[in-house]
């Protein structure tokens, strides 16, 4: 009888604030009286309309928490694979996303502070007890074929805020399906960044991150590169390079190419890892002779990244110069270059600019004489055009055959080659 009166009073009120106050009383009464029959229609009404009530984050959070708690108690536990369990998990994801706005403001330094000190308990922060409760609900569903994608999404949101070694063990020991790889990798990356992953799992994560850089899914590749960045920030860069270099002797060409791709990323983001780069450069030169095209492409990419890293100082150029004969011989041994022609030409042009055409021609195979002659003529032509230009506006017109290159990061996270005008560099 009381629930009926409260519903009638709720429907009679037009003001949104008054309606929400009445709804809060209805929820409290239904929860206290354990009226399970009213939970489902009440939850559907809230799901369909709560975004139109203009509630603040704290009120939305409390409302969603009450709803998914009541649904879990009355319906979610009956059939873990049913529609009710799916609704509960989706409501938990919406609940976790209410914390994102406060975290973005805190990262930008725009949250209000008490004086110069942060308040002891931020209103937007997810409490540790709530995070543990949500994790206990989501973890059993990681192996559920129906709900595991949502469960990994929930795990990624939770690990961005809390987590420990036990959470890391649960995620690392599971082989996520294809549709869940990106979310699983994002969750593990968050734990690595928060230093919640034990040291004995770092080597396994390094191999998984390397393999993920060659994933067919762009989101999974981007997450794998982010995991490599987190591992590079947490582990010793030289040890990480040693872990990744083990992939260069893998039995499959796909893994060898993945190892080269991962090494390129770590060399790019970690200047401190360049001490072992000359030895890795020799391994990359050897892999140019691999019969697999994807390994040859990855090896060329690694050589370009290593060249850009080593040519930045005198010590790096001194370490690179004695390895040029073997590298030039390997490039010449690619045979009909085809798809590698532009990459080989750009790499040899970079070496000519750094060490001089005469030095490169002295150690290059005789078969590369036409290429070196063309590069020399292109550079001379570019210099004449730049000299003839009074204001230098015509320098851009010679950027076709006379470009240098540097390295950067593409949209999917991989290390990419960036063209740089010779007039600038």
Record field, number of beta strands: 2
Q: Strand sequence of the main sheet, in spatial order?
A: 1-2
* Cα-to-Cα separation, first versus last residue: 82 Å
pLDDT average, as an integer?
Answer: 76
Strand content: under 5%
The outline comes out as elongated
Supply the helix-strand structural class.
mainly alpha
Q: Low-confidence parts, pLDDT < 50 over ≥5 residues?
A: 101-124, 394-403, 419-425
Share of helical residues: 55-70%
Order of helices and strands: HHHHHHHHHHHHHHHHHHHHHEE
- How many alpha or pi helices? 21
Which value, in Å, is the CA radius of gyration?
Answer: 29 Å
Major sheet description? 2 strands, antiparallel
Polypeptide structure, described:
The structure is a single chain. By secondary structure, this protein is mainly alpha-helical. 64% of the residues lie in helices and 3% in strands. The chain is built from 21 helices and two strands. It has helices spanning 2-12, 16-33, 36-49, 57-76, 83-97, 100-107, 128-138, 148-159, 165-172, 181-193, 202-212, 218-234, 237-245, 253-269, 277-287, 293-310, 314-320, 324-332, 341-355, 357-363, 369-388; strands spanning 403-409, 415-421. The longest helix has 20 residues, at 57-76. The model is unreliable at 101-124, 394-403 and 419-425 (pLDDT under 50).
């Amino acid at each position: 009888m009381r629930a009926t009166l409260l519903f009638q009073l709720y429907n009679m009120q037009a003001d949104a604030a008054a309606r929400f106050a009445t709804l809060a009383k209805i929820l409290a009464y239904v929860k206290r009286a354990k009226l399970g029959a009213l939970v489902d229609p009440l939850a559907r009404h809230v799901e369909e309309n709560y975004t139109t009530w203009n509630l603040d984050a704290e009120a939305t959070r409390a409302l969603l928490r009450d709803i998914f708690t009541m649904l879990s108690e009355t319906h979610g536990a009956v059939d873990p694979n049913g529609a009710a369990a799916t609704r509960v998990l989706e409501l938990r994801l919406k609940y976790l996303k209410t914390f994102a706005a406060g975290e973005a403001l805190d990262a930008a330094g725009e949250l209000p502070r008490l004086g110069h000190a942060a308040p002891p308990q931020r209103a937007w922060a997810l409490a540790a007890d709530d995070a543990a409760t949500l994790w206990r609900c989501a973890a059993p569903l990681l192996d559920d074929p129906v709900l595991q994608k949502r469960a990994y999404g929930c795990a990624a949101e939770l690990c961005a805020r809390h987590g420990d070694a036990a959470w890391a063990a649960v995620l690392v020991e599971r082989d996520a399906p294809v549709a869940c790889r990106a979310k699983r990798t994002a969750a593990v990356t968050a734990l690595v960044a928060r230093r919640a992953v034990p040291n004995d799992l770092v080597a396994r994560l390094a191999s998984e991150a390397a393999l993920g850089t060659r994933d067919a899914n762009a989101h999974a590749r981007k997450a794998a590169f982010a995991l490599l960045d987190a591992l590079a920030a947490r582990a010793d860069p030289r040890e990480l390079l040693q872990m990744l270099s083990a992939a260069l002797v893998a039995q499959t060409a796909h893994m060898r190419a993945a190892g080269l791709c991962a090494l390129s990323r770590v060399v790019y983001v970690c200047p401190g890892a360049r001490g072992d780069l000359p030895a890795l450069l020799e391994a990359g030169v050897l892999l140019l002779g691999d019969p697999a095209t994807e390994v040859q492409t990855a090896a060329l990419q690694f050589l370009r990244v290593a060249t850009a890293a080593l040519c930045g100082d005198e010590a790096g150029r001194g370490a690179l110069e004695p390895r040029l004969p073997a590298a030039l011989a390997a490039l010449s041994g690619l045979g009909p270059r085809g798809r590698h022609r532009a990459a080989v030409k750009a790499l040899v042009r970079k070496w000519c600019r750094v060490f001089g055409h005469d030095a490169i021609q002295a150690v290059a195979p005789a078969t590369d004489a036409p290429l070196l002659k063309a590069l020399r003529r292109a550079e001379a032509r570019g210099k004449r055009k730049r000299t003839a230009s009074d204001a230098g506006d015509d320098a851009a017109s010679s950027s076709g055959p006379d470009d240098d290159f540097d390295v950067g990061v593409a949209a999917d996270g991989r290390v990419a080659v960036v063209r740089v005008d010779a007039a600038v560099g």
